[in-house]
Every structure is written in structure tokens, then in C-alpha cells.
Amino acid sequence: MMRTGRHLSIRNGYAAAAKTAKDSGMGAFQYFPKNPRSLTVKSFDRRDAAKCADLCREHGIATIAHTPYPTNLAADGEGARERVVQSLLNDLDIAEHCGSIGVVVHFGIYKGAEILRGYQSIIQSLNEVTANWSGEAKLLIEIQSGEHAFMGTTFEELAQIRNLCNEPAKLAFCLDTCHMFASGMWKGAGDEAWLETAEKQGILNAVAAVHFNDSLYPGGSRRDRHAPVGQGYIGLEAMRWIMSLEGLRAVPFILETPPDEDGRYEKQLNLMREWGIHL
Questions:
Q1: Does residue 278 register a pLDDT over 70?
Q2: What domains, with CATH codes, occur in the chain?
Q3: Sign of CA dihedral 20, 53, 250, 223
Q4: Which of helix, strand or coil describes residue 65?
Q5: 71 burial via Cβ count (<10 Å: 0-12, 13-18, 19+)
Q6: Cβ of 45: how many Cβ atoms within 10 Å?
Q7: Pairing between strand 253-255 and 207-211?
């Protein structure tokens, strides 16, 4: 049975989020390790994090953390990069204590004239983080939609960045169905062109999580707006198809979508559970 779930709040602590996942029958969940709108380093309750890890281990729940919104691997300038690096190390520390697979971080956005400098900044940021990190939790580089800058939207980029880093074993990947669809990479059900590229580039065996989001806008729109599963332009058939792919069966699938009509997520979660059992 595949591990499925959704993003959960840590308003009441890490262990409380794990209990919510357990009580809701989830096999996985995602959380922000700290304030999602700040890069401020958080002093966290390690006992609470340890309880989260114990609960998830006991019930077979997989977890991933997600970096705060201001995190930008392509940040240019020593002061900006240092803030990102220290924040990421803090995120990894929290994820490690919570027993998580790793921390999702967007590929990065660079809007300067010299695009190569943006890629160099990403590599430098990743090298500084991995050089100062010795835990098991990994940085999960997330593919992007192309909304703010058309970088980080191809598997070639993801593979090249990882290969050029000093410690690639500390890096993995997070796919996002909405991002892949919005960028034009994925056309929908049965489109295996991107899958072949992912295998050729060595991406597929390094995917650690999937964000399972339908798209509010058509494919190729470069608009990163999530829709509930089956209610967007990707649609039920394509969402079920991507969940059936053998190369992704071992990784957690996480909802980052708006809730169902009743304000809950049970309809979407039940769809995922049903597909995960019968595929």
C-alpha cells in the first residue's frame, strides 16, 4: 500500500501533527518546520520532535519538511546566501529530529542578466549546506513550474546541479505534478516522454517524494495554482496514471491542494488510498 497524506500544521507541535496523521489514517504528511514566511533560525523543542519521530516510526508514517517561502537557493550576495544556508541547516536539524526523509527546497529563482550566475549560486548554496550537515535527512530539490523564472523546470537542470555539487548523496528530488504540468513537461495520462528523460538523467531513482496537486490552469501555462485532485486541468485519469508508475510507488505522495467542498480532505485522501491499494 502506498503512503499518502497531506500538508499538516505544526501549530500544536510536531508530535501533534503526527498524531493527526495517525488518527486520520495517513501514511505520510508534510509540514513547515518553522514559520513559513521567515528565514529566522528556530530554537525548537527536541523532545516534541523526538515524540513525532517515535510516533511516525511506530505507525509507519513517512514525513517530509518544506522550507519557508523566502528560501531561495539562487540568492546572490554573501549576506543573502548566508541567511538561506543557516535557515536550511536549521530546517534539516528539525527534520532529522522529527525522523523525516528530508526537507523540500525549490530549485531557485534568479532574475539577473547573467543566468549562469544563478546556477552557480545554487551550487554554492547547496555546497555550503552539505559541507556543514552530517545527518541522515536530505535536501529534496523540487522541480519548478516556470512561473517566476523558467529555470529548474527540466530534469537535465536538476541532474546537472546535483552532479556538480560536492556531496550529491545528501541531495534528492521532489516532483510536483502541478509544476510539471504547468511547465509543459508533462502532458497528462500516458505521456511517458518525461519519464524516459527522468530515467536517463538518473532522476527517477533519486525521487524521495511527490507533491500530488491538480492544476487550476491549463498545461504549459506556467501558473503554479493548485486545484483539488480531479477538479483541475490535469484531471482524475492523469492523476491516477502518475500514481500508478512503478518508479514512484515507494515514495510518499503528499497533497498541497485546497480542501474538498466540505472544507476537509477526505474525498481526495480516499481517492489516493483507493488508487494506492488497487494499482
A1: no
A2: 4-278 (3.20.20.150)
A3: positive
A4: strand
A5: buried
A6: 15
A7: parallel
